[in-house]
Design a protein that fits this description.
By secondary structure, the protein is of the alpha+beta class. The chain is built from 5 helices and 8 strands; from the N terminus they run E-H-E-H-E-H-E-E-E-H-E-E-H. It is globular, with a radius of gyration of 16 Å. The relative contact order is 0.23.
Length: 218
């Protein structure tokens, strides 16, 4: 899971027509329930919940950040933001799908506001690194927020502006984080789901910048 290799130039997303073709159906079903929360991993989800997705490097550590938040109904590791339907992990790692390693977060907005998820996202990784996160190098490790509503989109943009100000004030670079609609989320293989619950001492390369995410203005 460790990218390790340092590239001489920035990895690039595949252009139109360059992505792998993928397949019509997933190759794996995955577990039925979340290993920590006990809730359904796949839809349908309760009508009181909303969905969001975040990419912040290796999804093993990223998923654990979100399942620990009170008010989160379920989480899942998967792939988003690319062109290849129903990819495998090996295909995503090839850099030819356009997908990022992402975490689906199904949450109860009455219990946990979306801004709390954004704060976990911003403070849980370094969003200034482009197509990498620490030693993990490649397009699949880029920083991204995938939104499912206009309200999420507006909140994500506002948080990126506010967080960018704090990063620059701390002498760091501006975030390279993309904000895009969550068109489709493809569940990762079973062994990736809640990986750090099953392997508590497993690899987690995430590290924040020490800059905090400001609260939204009222």
């Amino acid at each position: 899971m460790v990218g390790g290799m340092r590239y001489l130039r920035e990895p690039a997303l595949p252009g139109p027509g360059e992505a792998l073709p993928g397949r019509d159906h997933p190759l794996f079903a995955g577990p039925e329930h979340h290993a920590v929360l006990g809730t359904r991993l796949h839809p349908p989800y309760p009508a009181t919940t909303e969905r969001a997705a975040f990419a912040l490097g290796c999804f093993w550590g990223a998923e654990r950040l979100f399942w620990r938040i009170p008010g989160v109904h379920t989480t899942a590791a998967g792939y988003a933001g690319g062109s290849t339907p129903n990819p495998t992990y090996e295909e995503v790692c090839s850099g030819r799908t356009g997908h990022a390693e992402a975490v689906l977060v199904v949450y109860e907005p009455a219990s946990v506001p979306y801004h709390d998820l954004l704060r976990t996202f911003w403070e849980g990784h370094d969003p200034t690194q482009g197509m990498r996160q620490g030693n993990d190098v490649g397009t699949q490790y880029r920083s991204a927020i995938f939104v499912t509503s206009e309200a999420q989109h507006a909140a994500a943009q506002a948080s990126r502006r506010a967080y960018a100000e704090r990063l620059l004030a701390a002498g760091l670079a501006a975030p390279t984080t993309e904000i895009a609609p969550l068109d489709r989320f493809f569940f990762a293989e079973t062994y990736h789901q809640q990986y750090l619950h099953h392997v508590p001492n497993g690899y987690c390369g995430l590290q924040g910048t020490g800059v905090t995410c400001p609260a939204p203005s009222t």
